[in-house]
Amino acid sequence: MNFRRFFSRAQSAPAARERLKVLLAHERAAVGDSDLVTKLRDEILRAISKHMQIDSDKVSVKMERGAQVSTLAVDIEIPFELTRKAA
Amino acid sequence: MGKVIVVTSGKGGVGKTTSSAALGAALAKGGDKVVVVDFDVGLRNLDLVMGAERRVVYDLVNVIQGEAKLTQALIRDKRVETLYLLPASQTRDKDNLTSEGVEKVIAALKSVFDWVICDSPAGIERGATLAMRHADIAIVVTNPEVSSVRDSDRIIGLLDSKTLRAENGEHMEKHLLLTRYDPVRAERGDMLKVDDVLEILSIPLLGIIPESMDVLRASNLGCPVTLADDRSAPSIAYCDAARRLKGENLPIMIPGEKRGFFGKIFGRKAA
Fold it and tell me: Which chain B residues have a beta carbon less than 8 Å from that of A16?
């Protein structure tokens, strides 16, 4: 059945092309680590660390760089004592 | 005054040394005086590819440190009398390459040779930046493969910022040399096509070198592929690229085994 697999297999070059385009668009915009999404990530974490000790296990940062839109998701667990103290 | 070319890529193993030797030999065959300079201090290989490994006495670092004269370090090719090699040091550290030293050597070579071809090491460290620093023309060697294209993009950025020409606000002439191209796999959709790579990197195309047994055979023999067999597909592709460097306007062919009959001629203008 190798014969059929050979013909049904999707082409991989278009995927390579699209991945490269998105990646390079970001890399060209960024000099070093100073692109917007990275900056936001660092500043958000810095702002949070002013108010609480960041436990790296309790913080999840996810970045998704897309062609048109990038997303940054920061997920932080804030212990109950801290919210009570602030109130 | 000769022209200084840097052959660079960022990624290793894409064919910088093979291309430096092949283009150098092709230019020299036409009667031009050519020197190919190995900048890969510590990991020299140009001597091996050009078949001069047993004739290396002095090297680039010796010249820079004043331990040897330039004329003592240059090795003349046994096949083409206008072709010379300046080997890199195998034992010294690459920190021995100083910016001033390289500048002096390049200036001296430029005054004697028509072409000074600098074979860059892989990476973006000192050796690579010094190899590109004094270049008038850059040849970016790229394989139709994602990591090579990404690294080439990075190198193009450095060529536009870290070279003397760029710092003086002058235009840095850059050409793409696509190597190890397999037209059958590209046609099947399993390899980036010429147009894909050109669209992404957007620098003019100097040539397409097909994936070929002849390249390995030539390096096994220590002979630049353009001197090994005049009629092999990679040899023809490199010779055409060399003619384009000299300003000829040749149509770019996608090389394949079935040349002439199925060989496709591009409508695109050459670099």
Answer: 145-146, 192, 196
What the block records as the tokens of B235 is 């040899």
The secondary structure of residue B95, as a DSSP letter, is: G
How far away is chain A from the Cα of B214, in angstroms, using its nearest Cα? 26
Residues 6+ apart with CB under 8 A from A85: none
Residue range B32-53: average pLDDT?
95
Whether the complex's predicted ipTM is more than 0.85 is answered with no
Per-residue pLDDT reduced to its tens digit, B180-234:
999 999 999 999 999 999 999 999 999 999 999 999 999 999 999 999 988 999 9
| Max Cα-Cα span within chain A | 69
A61 three-state secondary structure: strand
The one-character DSSP state at A78 is -
pLDDT recorded at residue A83: 67
Strands B115-119 and B83-86: unpaired
Cβ within 8 Å, pair B192-A16:
yes
- Cβ contact, residue pair B146, A20, below 8 Å: yes
